[in-house]
Amino acid sequence: MSFGSPYVTLPRFSYLRPRSLDEAFEALEGGNAKVMAGGIGLLNFMKERLLAPSVVIDIKGIPELSGIRLSGDVRIGAAVRLVELEENRSLELIAPTLYRAVRQIADPIIRSSATLVGDVCEAIPWTDGPTALAALDASASVVSKNGERKVKVADLVQGLGQLAIDENEIVKEITFSSGYKKGTYVKFSNASEYALASVAVAYSPESGIARVSVGSLAEKPQVFTLEDAGTSPDEEVSAMIRKVSSYIESGLSAVDDILGSAEFKKQVAKALIIKAFKEVF
Amino acid sequence: MREIRLRINGIERELHVEDNETLLEALRNRAGVTSVKAACWRGECGLCTVLLNGRPVKSCSTLAVEADGKTVETAEGLYFDKRAKGLMESFVRNGATQCGFCTPAFVVASHALLLRNPKAEDEDIKEGLKGLICRCGTYVNMMRAVKEARQYYADGKQTA
User: A233, A270, B115, B138: which one has the fewest Cβ atoms less than 10 Å from its Cβ?
Assistant: First the structure.
């Protein structure tokens, strides 16, 4: 065992486990603190010495941050682990887009520790949570001792490692409308679990509106809306797929990165659109 | 240093740990539980998998202080569970170990998988164990071993 070496062991910090949000805000006041839920992402960044907070605030002991609510708008607290979402079969019926994305995040053992809010706050462009949540038009409640504000999840992640919240704020929960009763999430990844391209579709049969979110192409998920999507005969679905494919080609931005070239990732996204639309419509 | 109390393989333990110490380090270096292997240290290989309050977690990605007041089970303790012992013997019968380094973690994860789903089929087993890596590549034999061990879990009762 190599005690004290970077990459394997953690830099020194003080661990705090507040019992209330007020206690957590107080701990954040001291500066150079990081909020931890599942810890999967944070602890890795710390081992790599990309982050070295002097205080780590474990928020799993704060009662307001636990629990899933499915009546009315869906609400998922910041301390809810992915395994709790996965074991909630009602979520599969209410928000299949999110349910299917959750089942594809990392592996089942990581999902016993990791949280959905953590998957978002990691701010990595290739993760699954933000793409699915952007399709669902989800919002995050961001709290500090000055009060609470709502931010669209799609605006929360600004790019690699860039999260649009202040040092003294905590993401308390994620909420979204339970109207998107149909949907799916498909991704293509290489040896890592990170998606080279991913597509989330959230469809509301009542309004006929489908929201499509394409992840991993650029720094953040790109969302567009289809009106009157409807469950249509096959030839209409094919027409919809053609329309969306040409939009991906001309309307979406893509960047070359370690997972693939911009052009390759766009082609993969187009293939995923076909798979996703055939599942949903 | 801070004191934590936890139940490791059925035995109450008090450990003095640092805030920045992972559960993996505490188990190996302070509690002497060496079936929990340190390999990638970053949640990818899964060889440090233990049951924390009955759920499989990667102990390299869990802080020791987070285990305060909880139960930890590893391959050493599972040997005294009738079903898990059957699972281990099934691993041996099927040649599901080569160098043996990953075996304790695969046993722990397979045990958790079979408790949850005693009727696990190929796809369930692949999905359930996908967070673990065997560098000898004994996956085919392991698949056979886990399927054969389903018989020991058929009554569906939880571990003590």
Answer: A233
Assign domain A182-280 to its CATH architecture. 2-Layer Sandwich (3.30)
Residue A1: pLDDT above 50? no
CATH number for the domain spanning B46: value is 3.10.20.30
Sort out which chain A residues have CB atoms less than 8 A from B45's CB and list them.
Answer: none
| Alpha carbons B87 and B79: distance in angstroms, whole number | 9
CATH number, residue B83: 1.10.150.120
Q: How far apart are CA A10 and CA A98, in angstroms?
A: 32
Domain boundaries along the sequence of chain A: 14-61, 63-176, 182-280
B104 in the same domain as B58:
no
pLDDT over 90 (residue B159)? no
Class of domain A63-176: alpha beta
Please indicate, yes or no, whether residues B63 and B98 belong to a single structural domain of this protein. no
Q: Is the pLDDT of residue A233 over 80?
A: no
Place of tokens 């293939």: A271
Residue-wise pLDDT tens digits, B57-80? 999 999 999 999 999 999 999 999
**Global pTM value:** 0.94
Q: Which helix (H) or strand (E) holds B123?
A: helix B122-128
* Sign of the Cα pseudo-torsion (A30, A31, A35, A40, in order): negative
Contact flag B58-A109 (C-beta cutoff 8 Å): yes
Task: Say whether A109 and B22 touch across the interface (CB within 8 A).
Answer: no
- Using CA atoms, how far apart are residues B155 and B153, in angstroms rounded to an integer? 6
State the total domains in chain B: 2
Digit-coded pLDDT (tens) for B129-151: 999 999 999 999 999 999 999 99
Domain that holds residue B43: 2-74
Q: pLDDT confidence of A193, banded at 50, 70, 90? A: confident
Report the chain A residue with the minimal C-alpha distance to residue B23.
A9
Q: By the CB < 8 Å criterion, does A3 face chain B?
A: yes
Distances (CA, A) of A122 to A115, A117, A133, B61: 11, 9, 14, 15
User: How confident is the prediction for chain A on average, in pLDDT?
Assistant: 93
CA-wise closest residue to B142 among B153, B132, B152: B132
**pLDDT digits 0-9 by tens, A18-33:** 999 999 999 999 889 9
| Residue B158 included in any domain | no
Question: Domain A14-61 is of which CATH architecture?
Answer: 2-Layer Sandwich (3.30)
